């Protein structure tokens, strides 16, 4: 399995970078990935009011209504920017106006691009003030990013959602590093179920991944008969010290 390089600011090289840079300068960075068919981006969500307004203007009426349902302005902003940047990236790939993109939704809620002949796979995740995106024309994708600086019962959540072997692996990690290890394992599992398109129809404890944050991310076993290990690739995305993230890709047959 592969591990991607550290996030770095890159010069504009192609339509996706140019289009986003013009709209939201300084808001997005590309993550180099050791897979030529997958494009990965990290975005800041703590933008100023002008940039948030630019993102809001790209959303569909349904997305605007969804944003309005958030009680806290902070959550409205994060949702608005996440979707606005997603539309901008996809619009550059599809060579169409971001606001003109129409999303459809699978049974589990995963979005896809409706009414467009060009096949493109994408996935997005956001946590606190960062969002992660992956785009590909040949791989089914899932991404997950998590914010470390919050109080959660990692032991209780691991017992509830992780396999016995994953729980045992976490217990071997020294306490100061265990929280990051928990989130490394969690993002690997979340990215996989998002890539399958099954969502929680594939329970988190029905497959196993490597748990230690410094080990190469891998799927170790699938209990579910609907999935097989061959064809999967997992990447650890270095998204900064306060976050942990994983990109999961499955080659299409």
Please outline the helices and strands.
Elements: E1 2-6, H1 15-23, E2 28-31, E3 38-44, H2 49-56, H3 61-68, H4 73-94, E4 103-105, E5 111-113, E6 121-127, E7 130-136, E8 139-147, H5 154-161, H6 164-171, H7 175-196, E9 207-209, E10 219-222, E11 232-238, E12 243-251
Helix pairs in contact: 1-4, 2-4, 3-4
Name a few traits of the molecule.
single chain, 253 residues, alpha+beta, Ribosomal Protein L22, Chain A, four-stranded mixed beta sheet, four-stranded antiparallel beta sheet, 7 helices, 34% helix, disordered N terminus
What does this structure look like?
- This protein has a four-stranded mixed β-sheet. A four-stranded antiparallel β-sheet has the order 2-3-7-6, covered by helices on one side. A two-stranded antiparallel sheet has the order 4-5.
- The protein has two domains: about 1-140, 4'-phosphopantetheinyl transferase domain (Ribosomal Protein L22, Chain A), CATH 3.90.470; about 145-250, 4'-phosphopantetheinyl transferase domain (Ribosomal Protein L22, Chain A, Alpha-Beta Complex).
- The protein is of the alpha+beta class and about 250 residues long.
- The chain contains seven helices and twelve strands.
- Strand 4 and strand 5 (about 110-115) form a beta hairpin.
- Helix 2 packs across helix 4 (about 75-95).
- The protein has helices spanning about 15-25, 50-55, 60-70, 75-95, 155-160, 165-170, 175-195, and strands at about 1-5, 30, 40-45, 105, 110-115, 120-125, 130-135, 140-145, 205-210, 220, 230-240, 245-250.
- Mean pLDDT is about 85; it is low at about 1-20.
- The longest helix is centred in the first third of the chain and has 22 residues, at about 75-95.
């Amino acid at each position: 399995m592969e591990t991607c390089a550290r996030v770095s600011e890159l010069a504009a090289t192609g339509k996706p970078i140019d289009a986003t840079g013009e709209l939201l300068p300084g808001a997005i960075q590309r993550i180099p990935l050791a897979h030529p068919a997958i494009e990965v981006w990290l975005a800041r969500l703590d933008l100023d009011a002008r940039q948030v307004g630019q993102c809001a203007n790209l959303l569909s009426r349904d997305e605007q209504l969804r944003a309005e349902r958030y009680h806290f302005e902070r959550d409205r902003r994060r949702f608005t920017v996440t979707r606005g940047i997603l539309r901008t990236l996809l619009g550059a790939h599809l060579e169409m106006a971001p606001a003109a993109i129409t999303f459809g939704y699978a049974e589990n809620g995963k979005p896809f691009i409706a009414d467009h002949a060009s096949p493109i796979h994408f996935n997005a995740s956001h946590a606190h003030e960062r969002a992660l995106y992956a785009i590909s024309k040949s791989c089914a994708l899932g991404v997950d990013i998590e914010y470390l600086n919050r109080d959660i019962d990692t032991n209780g959540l691991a017992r509830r959602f992780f396999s016995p072997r994953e729980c045992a692996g976490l217990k071997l990690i020294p306490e100061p590093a265990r929280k990051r290890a928990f989130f490394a394992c969690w993002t690997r599992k979340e990215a996989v179920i998002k890539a399958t398109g099954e969502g929680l129809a594939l329970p988190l404890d029905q497959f196993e991944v490597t748990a230690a944050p410094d080990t190469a991310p891998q799927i170790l076993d699938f209990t579910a008969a609907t999935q097989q290990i061959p064809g999967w690739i997992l990447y650890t995305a270095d998204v900064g010290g306060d976050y942990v993230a994983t990109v999961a890709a499955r080659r299409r047959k």
